[in-house]
Amino acid sequence: MNILVTGGTGYIGSHTSVALIEAGHEIVVADNLCNSKASTIDRIKEITGKEVTFYQVDVTGEEALDRLFSKHHFDGVIHFAGLKAVGESVEKPLLYYYNNTVSTMVLSKFCLKNKVKKFIFSSSATVYGDNKVPFVETMELLPTTNPYGETKAISERILKDVANVNPDFEVSILRYFNPVGAHESGLIGEAPTGIPNNIMPYITQVAKGKLEKLKIFGNDYPTVDGTGVRDYIHVMDLAEGHVVALEHLTPGVHIYNLGTGHGASVLQLVHTFEEANGVKIPYEIVGRRPGDIAESYADVSKAERELGWTTKRDIYQMCRDAWNFERNFKE
């Protein structure tokens, strides 16, 4: 299939681009490069040995998308393009609501206009709000604790409504948990611009000496050691989940959790990183971060049952691959 990958130079998008190519699909990448670099395309080429067509466009813009869809025939779209920092979304809600929901609406519009039937949406476990763990796809979604989560929940509703009146539209909503790690080659990984918002690149930059110490937001949660518990998933397991979801698409809306099915605390992640790489990570405990919840981990039985998908890589490998990328990464 020929797939448009929006946000394809970003962290999850780049790894999924590799997985798509390795599964025999053709891709076109669209990204506005607000939190990534065009050089990632060269790294995808180096890993796969394949040329990749790239457009620097913002997918909230209808004129740019009209030109893109006029140039290419797509069998499907995988929509990663979006802002994703929970804390920033609390500070800049309008930016998040505009960017994340408008992009979903505009892409849906052009898929329908051009008879592109397959749509994979990059959602998040954040949509569950403060539900009881493990999170199951059939749960009623609670109000989330941050605008980022709300933009994902709204986008899900948009896609459901679109599919309801377009019976041949095939939508897979993938609610994923906390991606970490990097491609085993060390050529692509999580390389945010500025101070990282996610924990693993913060840890690796502390390990590299770029940052002084890790800040852990809260140690008074009702968890195993007081720090927040998350379902960390290797980014290549997540990428392969997108390929499987694409290849299993049928008309209607299909929702899947992509995680490991169990959680690890922030301190457990730090200690595993130290063990895997022989590097000490200095840290300090600071106050809780607005919008965070105590625990988040998945029930992944539906993805295993319907897609035949399970994770293959453990948290030790996530830590090892993340550090391998950081050591090799050049700005």
Could you explain the architecture of this structure?
- By secondary structure, the protein is an alpha/beta fold.
- It has a domain at 2-180 and 232-259: Rossmann fold.
- It has 11 helices and 14 strands.
- The strands form 4 sheets. The protein has a 7-stranded parallel sheet, sandwiched between helices. A 3-stranded mixed sheet has the order 12-9-14. A two-stranded parallel sheet has the order 7-10.
- Helix 1 packs across helix 8 (235-247) and helix 9 crosses helix 11.
- The model has no long low-confidence stretch (mean pLDDT 95).
CATH fold group of one domain: Rossmann fold
Write out the CATH superfamily name of one domain.
NAD(P)-binding Rossmann-like Domain
Give the low-pLDDT segments.
Answer: none
Average of pLDDT: 95
The biggest beta sheet reads: 7 strands, parallel
Query: What is the count of DSSP helices, taking H or I runs of 4+ residues?
Result: 11
Find the structural class using helix and strand composition.
Answer: alpha/beta
Using DSSP, what is the number of strands?
14
Annotated CATH architecture of one domain = 3-Layer(aba) Sandwich
List the helices and strands in order: EHEHEHEHHEHEEHEEEHEEHEEHH
First and last CA, distance: 33 Å
- Report the CATH C-level class of one domain: Alpha Beta
Residues in helix, %? 40-55%
**Approximate strand percentage:** 15-25%
Strand order within the widest sheet?
3-2-1-4-5-6-11
Anisotropy-based shape: globular
Roughly how many Å is the radius of gyration? 19 Å
